[in-house]
Structure formats: structure tokens, C-alpha cells
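Table S2 (continued). Query chain:
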Amino acid sequence: MPLLERLLRRTTLDENVTIAFDNLRANKLRSALTMLGVVIGVATVMTMASIVQGVREQILHTLEVAGPTTFYVMKVFSQQPLNPEALPKWVRIRPDLTGDEATAIAALPEIQYGAIWNQIIGRMDYQGERTQPTTVYGADDGFTLLMGGGLAAGRWFTPSEERKGAAVAVILESHARRLFGRLDPLGKTMLIAGKPVEVIGLYEPPANIFTPPGAETGAVVPYRFADHAYRIDKTNMLFIGVKPRDGISVAAAQEAVTVRLRELRRLRPGDGNTFDLITQDQILDVFNSITGVFFVVMIVLASVALMVGGIGVMAIMMVSVTDRTREIGVRKALGATRRDILMQFLVEAATLTGFGGVIGIVVGLVAGQGATRLLNIEASPPWGLTLIAVAVSVSIGLIFGVLPARRAARMDPIEALRYE
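Corresponding output:
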């Protein structure tokens, strides 16, 4: 049906949508520039949602690998790393964790595994080839019990190497390929954070583990070697990993560990604990708080873009009302009500922003997939947010289209017909 014929009678919703698309096609550049703000806002939200959801899925997978009952003992638990050079007094007076305490915890009947670990961040070098800064654990041969994965080649430390703090290392398999190429890395001497070590094994992490650049397990060395060879931040990078026996609840295991540590530290009944216990749920809460703030910032930025897009829609629709004054007069003269005119322009504004929202969703999903691949994480598309994004974009059109639509609906038909 020709456009003029549709305009000369009362229109239904689907016909209003068709008229809206006809007007968009007639003013392609103007429509594209109007939708740009909506596209940018929706695409930003979708991209950040993909990244945050992907990272969260990998964090959850990592916690599942370690097991829901695993927990950690630390000198102090803080959502933000404390500066070891400027610790508050209440932290300074707490004693550092020791290997003897880890041994005592491991001996408890409720505990399957307990060992003291430490961490540093350093580069790995071999004959001019080097990695980016990566995480190096000082641990023992029970590393995979908490972290998952396994050996791709070679072996773990012997009890003698652990006791003596031998300069040996199990390194990440992907790092070995980069550093050694086609050479067999086993038995070779390389540098980890500037210290020479012999490669005795290759570590293969569990599939899909959360590994943003620099946060993956680059290497595992004996705890005693790391303790002697490197400067360890004993506030933030020293902890005891604990895994209860099968059938023992986390609460019961934590209670047993708390009682034993208080005995070892000779704390009186009225004294507070001089250590903190961290569960997997607390780790996830910290992650959620960090990404929550990050996501809120992105939502605010996207909202600004959507607001700009909405103002653009309102401005363009005001211009459109002026350009189509005579058309409005003809429709009113032939019996169109204020409601008909109001609905026509509201639907046109909603169609404009809705179409922009769909484009923004496509752009955002593609950009989100690209970003998650660059970060080496797998993420499923945030379909729930996709529906919300469509609803928000259409709502922007309805909200910002009200003023120009009301202006069109209130036009006097005689004055409109006289307009040139």
C-alpha cells in the first residue's frame, strides 16, 4: 500500500512501524547519526557484560576445581592488598604464618591436606627468550590437589628436594613451548625471577581456568626454595591451603584449625584471632565486589551515551514534526485523532532507537567475543541482558519521543495545512 494512502486513514501499530521504517529509509544519514548514541551505549554495555560474565564463569570453574570445601589461612584478609612497607599497627603485631603451623594443621584428624605456600610475580628467561611477569608459587607436590590440572611431562618435587629447598621447578607447558621451542625443557636450567632453576616437569592447568595475562600459574618451585631465594610479602603472598577430609564440613574443619592455631599461638579466651580464614565464597564475594564496581562504571558511561542518543532522537523528531507539518494537517483533516498522531510519532521514535539497540547488541556481542578471546577466557553470550538492552533502547525512544509526538498531536489542522 502506498505511503500516502496509509497516512490518509487511521493506522494500526504494524502500519505505524512500516511508516517509521519508510521515513528512516528516506532520511538514512540523519537516522544513522541519530542512532549512533544508542548503538554506542548498548554496545558498551553488551561488551562489558560479556567480559564480566566470562571472567565470572572462569572464576567459578576455578573454585570448582579446587573444591567448594577448600579454604585458606592468612595473616590478614583484605579486599585490597596491603602495602607491606606501611602496614597498620594491628597488622604488624600479628605473627607471620609458619611451616610448623601448617604441619600442625595437616596433622588434624579433620584435615586431608594442609601446607604453607607463597607467591611472587616474576619473569621466566631462557637464553634471551622471556615471558611477561607471571605468578610463581612456592608449594609442594600437593599443588594439583588445590589448583587442579596435572603433569604433562616430567615429575613433581621429591621429599628431599622439598626439605632442602632445591632449585627445581615445574613450569607451565605453554611457557615451556614459548621459551624452549622444539627443545626438550626437562633438565634444562632457566631463570625464574632472576634465579637459576632446573626444569623437572611441565604443568598443564585445568581446562578453562581463569587465566588473564600475568595471573596464570607460570611455575611452581619448592616452598623452601622460594622462601630463601626471593623476598616474600608475608602479609599478602603467604598462606596455608587447607582441604578437609571427605565428610567433614567446612565449618567443622575451620573450627578445628582455629582451635589448633590459637593453641599454638597461646591466645587466651578473651583474645581475638591473629589470623584470618578465607573460604571460596569470600574469594567469590571479593571478585563480585570488584567487577560490580567496574560494571557500574560501565553502566554509567553507557547511560551517558544512551542519554545523548535519546536527546538526539528528540531533536531529530522535533525536526521531523516540523518537516511533516502539512502531512499532519492532511491526516487530521481526514479524521485522524490526536491519539493517532501521537502513536505515529511515538512508534517512529521507538523504532529508531529499537533498531539502534539491535545494531548495538550485535556490535557488543561481536566485540565481547573478541575481547574474551584476547583475554583467554570463554564466555556465553549474556542473552538475558540482550532482552533488557532491547527494552531499554525502545524505552529511550518512547521517553524522548513524547515531547515531539505531543507537539505533533496538538497541531491545529488548519494551521498545519497552511504550512509551506
